Amino acid sequence: MEDIFGTALLDYQKGAYTEDLITFSSLGEEDVMPLPYLFRNFQQMPPLEQKALKGCEGRILDIGCGAGSHSLVLQERGLDVTAIDHSPGAIETCRIRGVRQTVLCDICSYEGQRFDTLLMLMNGIGIVGTLAQLGPFLDHLKTLLRPGGQLLLDSSDIIYMFDEGDKPQEWEHYYGEVTFTIQYKGMTGPSFPWLYVSYGVLEEIAKAHDFSCELVGDGEHYDYLARLSPRKY
Length: 233
Hints:
Layout: H1 4-13, E1 21-25, E2 30-33, H2 47-54, E3 59-63, H3 69-76, E4 80-85, H4 88-97, E5 102-104, E6 115-120, H5 134-142, E7 145-156, E8 177-184, E9 187-188, E10 192-195, H6 199-208, E11 211-218, E12 223-230
Parallel strand pairs: 3-4, 3-6, 4-5, 6-7
Antiparallel strand pairs: 1-2, 1-8, 7-12, 8-9, 8-10, 11-12
Helix pairs in contact: 1-4
């Protein structure tokens, strides 16, 4: 499968930046994902991301690491961080930028190592695709956590994007299930599902799968940061 996202990251890293990623969604929106933003430093990150990075501790797994910006911040602070992504281009970019520990793998297939902090930023939880997959995905992440470990993630409640007269309970699918397509330099990738989950729904599913769930902070655009930890019995 063509690694469009990774190709774009490598182009920027190697000085061949001429255009940005374009995203198309089932919400009927076309949007631009500026490549420079994916290479931001700590000061350029939004407050919720900064808060999440400050909350990382112990051995850390940066899930869906992209260009490795979060991993680099943690690494510079002397923390033990591993960056994981299923995109070969993203992992190569991380290595070029100096991320010392990287893994090329789909997180759903990853096993063996255990961590104190699992980090999923930029709505990283969206990779589960559908609400039905969120619970099983959390069960998998639980196997990657050491006792007392935590999962830090951010997401958004996109109900604001719909008309007030719409009734989510009558929709065929959860309103946060969105389909995306990415385009870059004439290349168009296959459509893929992405999940935006409200905090209330996340909390409900997390508790059903034996996680405690804490709202760490709210952002300015209907986004939030949450901390999940497996319950102790």
